[in-house]
């Protein structure tokens, strides 16, 4: 898919997903997102950029870590995600956080503007991953730290069939190569190629718990990367996709809900 088209799909897709994402995914991913922030080893007074901030979970955790003397900038491709994060900023009392809409490949600002960068469950959505990694390196000061987390191997994520199920009803793949950064050493190769050193990958098994069919489908179909396609499907197609997705996770059914195995990969690196 052309990179400009892919960015557009991601932008409007996450606009469509923003409310369901906040409701269905944030509770599941908050602890993993905070673990990503912890791996950045943030210090008081530092300047931090949170790339693909979503509704700001990582940005708020980073803001608490750097304190009032520090500053956090959260960026996201989706205007609605940024709007929601901005709403939450007042409730969080995070006066040292600013949010703005931006593509991962063009963050803007001067070279070396930040001491640390965070990206929690975002890099797999970059239209041009090498360009996104290079941009992260550009905006970090020498010695600046990068901490990221992505979904792991396709074979380790029990919900992975959602992509071919949805793709069967659209003209092109919804999110091609979604799991490619979860392959062993993929993040190491990406970051090293962008000029980072001391790259360390950590693989972790996790379980996604949904309490009902509606909760499982609401998160994955309405609040995830297939949301734009889902929104455009007619009712009969939605019924087919929903049934096929529930069948795909049926092995993980526990009572009325589901416990779906997954894998994530954390990566830490330092700007040379």
Account of the protein in words:
The chain has 272 residues and is of the alpha/beta class. It has a single domain, classed as 3-Layer(aba) Sandwich (Rossmann fold), CATH 3.40.50. It is 42% helix and 25% strand. The protein contains 10 helices and 8 strands. The chain has helices at residues 3-24, 26-38, 57-66, 79-92, 129-139, 162-167, 186-193, 213-222, 227-232, 235-248; strands spanning 47-51, 71-76, 97-101, 114-120, 140-151, 196-210, 253-254, 257-271. Strands 1, 2, 3, 4, 5, 6, 7 and 8 form an 8-stranded mixed sheet that branches. Helix 1 packs parallel to helix 4, helix 1 (3-24) packs antiparallel against helix 8 (213-222) and helix 2 (26-38) runs parallel beside helix 3. The longest helix has 22 residues, at 3-24. The radius of gyration is 18 Å and the shape is globular. The model has no long low-confidence stretch (mean pLDDT 96).
Give the topology.
Elements: H1 3-24, H2 26-38, E1 47-51, H3 57-66, E2 71-76, H4 79-92, E3 97-101, E4 114-120, H5 129-139, E5 140-151, H6 162-167, H7 186-193, E6 196-210, H8 213-222, H9 227-232, H10 235-248, E7 253-254, E8 257-271
Parallel strand pairs: 1-2, 1-4, 2-3, 4-5
Antiparallel strand pairs: 5-8, 6-8, 7-8
Helix pairs in contact: 1-4, 1-8, 2-3
């Amino acid at each position: 898919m052309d990179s400009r088209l892919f960015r557009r799909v991601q932008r409007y897709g996450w606009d469509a997903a923003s409310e369901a994402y906040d409701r269905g995914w944030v509770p599941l991913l908050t602890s993993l997102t905070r673990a990503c922030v912890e791996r950045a080893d943030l210090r008081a007074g530092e300047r931090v950029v949170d790339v693909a901030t979503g509704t700001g979970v990582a940005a708020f955790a980073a803001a608490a870590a750097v304190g009032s003397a520090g500053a956090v900038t959260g960026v996201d491709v989706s205007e609605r995600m940024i709007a929601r994060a901005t709403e939450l900023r007042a409730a969080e009392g995070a006066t040292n956080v600013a949010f703005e809409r931006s593509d991962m490949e063009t963050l803007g600002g001067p070279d070396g503007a930040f001491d640390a960068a965070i990206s929690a469950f975002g890099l797999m959505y970059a239209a041009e991953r090498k360009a996104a990694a290079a941009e992260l390196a550009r905006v970090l000061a020498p010695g600046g730290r990068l901490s990221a987390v992505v979904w792991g191997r396709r074979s380790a994520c029990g919900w992975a069939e959602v992509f071919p199920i949805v793709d069967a009803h659209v003209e092109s793949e919804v999110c091609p190569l979604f799991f490619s950064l979860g392959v062993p050493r993929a993040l190491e190769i990406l970051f090293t190629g962008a000029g980072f050193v001391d790259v360390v990958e950590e693989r972790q098994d996790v379980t996604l718990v949904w309490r009902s069919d509606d909760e499982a489908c609401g998160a994955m179909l309405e609040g995830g990367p297939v949301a734009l396609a889902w929104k455009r499907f007619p009712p009969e197609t939605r019924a087919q996709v929903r049934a096929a997705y529930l069948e795909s996770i049926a092995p993980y059914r526990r009572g009325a809900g589901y416990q779906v195995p997954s894998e994530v990969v954390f990566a830490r690196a330092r700007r040379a």
